[in-house]
Amino acid sequence: MNAIVDLAVIVQEARLSDPATVAALDKWVLAHPVSTPFHRPGWIMAVEAGTGQKAKMLVARRPGGKIAGVLPLTHIRSALFGRALVSSGFAVDGGMLVDHRKAGPALADAAWTLARTLGCTTVELRGGEAPTDPIWQNKADAYLGFSRPLAEDDAAELKAVPKRHRAEIRKGLANDLAFEVGRDKRLRDIHYRLYAHSVHNLGTPVFPRALFDAVLDRFGDDADIALVSKDGKPLSAVISLYHHGACMPYWHGAADGARAMRSNEALYFRLMRRAHERGCTLFDFGRSKVGTGPAAWKKTWGFAGEPLGYHLRTAPGHETRDVNPLSPQYRRKVELWKKLPESLANLIGPHIARGLG
Fold first, then answer.
1. On the CB side of 139, how many CA atoms lie within 13 Å of its CA?
2. pLDDT digits over 191-219, tens only?
3. For an engineered disulfide with 247, which of 118, 147, 213, 275 has Cβ 3.0 to 4.6 Å away?
4. Helix (H) / strand (E) containing 19
5. Cα–Cα distance measured from residue 42 to residue 88, given in angstroms and rounded to the nearest whole number
6. pTM score, two decimals?
């Protein structure tokens, strides 16, 4: 795309094929105090490698060349769900990350220009700096984010949990469950099997295995898999991301026997303690849809849900892209998907899920 020029900043698309460019952008993102894992170029590049949806990174620079802001984007193309630019794809955050007051408007305009060039009718910015132009729709009623500081020791961590759920955690810890962390092929295989089983029960297509592998490979020590098992039988597993002192459990899966063994309670409590040991100060439980069971469950841990701000722009005459499985248009499809044999759902699901973003 052509450069978008402002009196104070110039916006251009970064050349993500150049390792030096990627390294410089990653360094800037990591140094920014309010960045997330989803602002890192490695995230959108992993999404591209794992799903085939193209990575784009817009960079605002001051006239001297210093970075003033970035906007990581995933170009979603789907016959079922349409075309859109999403920041960031397959993420709960992203959006515009800036340190100059003119970088935000310039990046928002550049994103819309790029979307029209690519034939996209919707741009979706998840979190980040809010666009100032009223043509953008600010939506804060769909998702809640859950995070709180980690406690200093086990006793304090348990005390931070409301009494009723504290008892559930203690039951899980008393079940003599094995806990391990890593990122090798065995753990990846187990995690994907549990994750695929869980999302099938929810009635949604499973993401491609290649997406999880690409994120783990790109993030290195900043991502891992935690697993809880009983007598060698895997019960619960989660891929977590680490960023700015925060542990973010992100993709979770569980076996049918997990609830009876309270393995999810044991998994997250043990993960909290391990995160503290590796120097983390914050536990970010991620987002959940308003009014859902997962949102209510996170509140039982003592997490208060904070509305997440999403910012949308849609071309005139077109409907805003909607991939929320709770939307009325998807309810029947969700119920039908649950009835598919799991083996068949896991075979065709990744081809469909690539278009969700």
1. 16
2. 999 999 998 888 888 999 999 999 999 99
3. 275
4. helix 19-31
5. 11
6. 0.91
Q: Which fold has domain 4-142+309-321?
A: Aminopeptidase (3.40.630)
Strand 233-243 versus strand 4-5 pairing type: unpaired
Joined together, the tokens standing for residue 185 give: 């092929």
Q: How far apart are CA 234 and CA 258, in angstroms?
A: 9
**Are residues 311 and 137 in contact, defined by beta-carbon separation less than 8 angstroms?**
yes
Give the CATH number of domain 145-307; options: 3.60.10.10, 3.40.30.10, 3.40.920.10, 3.40.630.30: 3.40.630.30
Contact 255, 234 (CB under 8 A): yes
Residue 321 corresponds to which tokens in the numbers above? 């892209």
Query: Could you read off the pLDDT of 256-299 as tens digits, one per residue?
Result: 999 999 999 999 999 999 999 999 999 999 888 887 888 898 99
Q: Which two tokens stand for residue 66?
A: 């210093």
As a dihedral over the C-alpha atoms of residue 64, residue 70, residue 72, residue 75, rounded to 10 degrees, the angle is -60
Structure tokens, 312: 């949308």
User: Cα separation of 11 and 3, whole Å?
Assistant: 5
Whether cis (ω within 30° of 0) applies to the bond prior to 88 is yes
Contacts of residue 212, Cβ cutoff 8 Å, sequence gap at least 6: 50, 188, 191, 192, 195, 239, 251
Alpha helices in 220-327 (DSSP H): 258-261, 263-277, 293-299
Q: Round to whole Å and give the CA distance between 16 and 180.
A: 35
Query: Boundaries of CATH 3.40.630.30 in the chain?
Result: 4-142+309-321, 145-307
**Burial class of residue 81, CB neighbours in 10 A (0-12, 13-18, 19+):** middle
Tokens 């649950």 identify what position?
338
**354 vs 277: which has the higher pLDDT:** 277
- The residues facing 77 across adjacent strands are 83
In three-state secondary structure terms, 61 is strand
